[in-house]
Amino acid sequence: MDKEKMTPEQRAVVEDRGGALLVSAAAGSGKTMVLVGRLMDYICDVDNPKNINDFLIITYTRAAAAELRSKISAELNARLAACESPALAQRLSRQLSLLYLAQISTVHAFCANILRQYAWKLDLAPDFRVAEERDCADLKQAALDRVLEARYGAMDRDFVLLADTLGAGRDDSALGELTLSVYNAMQSHPDPQAWLDRCVGQLDVPADLSATGWGQALLSDLKENLLQWQLVLDRAMALAGTDPAQTKNSLDRLAQTRELLGQLAQAADQGWEAVRTHPAVQDQKLLFPRFGAARGADPQIKAQVTALRDNCKKAVGNLLARFQTPEAQALADLERTAPAIRALLSLTRDFAEAYARQKSRRNLLDFSDLEHQALRLLVQADGSASAAAREIAQRFCQVLVDEYQDTNAVQDAIFTAVSQNEQNLFFVGDVKQSIYRFRLADPTLFLARYQAYVPADQAREGEPRKILLSRNFRSRPEVLEAANGVFSQLMCPMVGGLAYGEAEALCQGASYPERAVPVELHVISADSAGAEDAPSAGRVE
Questions:
Q1: Cβ neighbours of residue 480 closer than 8 Å, sequence gap 6 or more
Q2: Residue 409 phi, psi (nearest 5)
Q3: Residue 441, helix vs strand vs coil
Q4: pLDDT at position 176
Q5: pTM to 2 decimals?
């Protein structure tokens, strides 16, 4: 692994010291190479060499951990074969013998390891078994059947309302599925019970709909979407301005729509009724006036402008349909549904306790238990690191986390707890490749660090920094141009969590060092132009 063949950004990742480092590594940018190179740079440091077992390296799967261990072994052997220094050769040989003692594992394997070491602190049996997914499914179903049977026996009024609401069909499978869904969402939070308590507290309906979580979410979503659709209309207006006939036909009408979307975005800041009673919501013909005749207009430009405006009209119409209900009626609806939701949360709490008892009797921990028990070991009630966490942190000179975009809040808190005041954290990932929100991954953790950290070449000693690896060494220029063209128009803070600008664009690697020029594509799909980010969860073994 020759540093001279690396790009400046790759060398910076290998050599950077002095603070937490986030590496945003695009597809094909040499992520594994720089991670291995960074390890080698520490190991071969003349002044302050480290051993391979001085590092905590967290990967996504057991297979990924084995592959990384194999690549480190191959690099050590390659360096040993080319080494001319007897002292360095001896050191490299020792690293090979230490490699299989190194902590290179999934987060769950790491948690299981420290829990066995410190089981006495948590009153755990150190010989606990990690439950397989099939075992978990059987135990969950048994626990769910038990709590549902108890609830049907009691038949309290709130539960009856819940069962009636979800009882369509010949069984109550929908009720069980929803309970499991809420339970899974609980487990992505550092304190599941506190999260459940907050959910219960939100069922107290205030007098102002904008003060509820639902009202805030809908108004915020409306504003974000309207601002994005203004950008789409800007593109339509730019196209219309290139053809005199199309300019006469549609430019002033597009400008009128854009202005009203801005007014509606401002109304979203004022509250529910300000949106509902706005003239553009009451009469959408005012919001989207018809185009005039466009005799002599370029057919292609006309089709593109019309498609962009029609997509905007459809998406905004769907958004505004949510605000047809008067605020008083919406608050009354929330008041009526609160008992059923309260019963669902109570049922979920009972299920969590019953499932925990099932596991306890069998001396089992599932993946979520491993994380939460490790967090209980490592973090005190006030949020500070425990004595065990400080002791574990002293073992590692660096905590390296791969695929950080697929981490959840519990895992992130564990990494922080076993670091040395976050100074020796190293994260690598690519938020554009985050696809595991359905497993409770939280890519906003990556985005928060990405936005907060300064570029490494501007960082002071000890200041968290970031490095972007955007050169792709895997794909042909035509592929990268197409990808950049599509992503630059679709990705924005609302869709994907970040703006796809020059810094995020993919560049051709070694053979084509200049930045690829994005292809000018005109996206006219309603789904793509107005897509909403889906809710989501962390990677597991």
A1: 472, 506, 507, 508, 516
A2: -65, -35
A3: coil
A4: 92
A5: 0.81
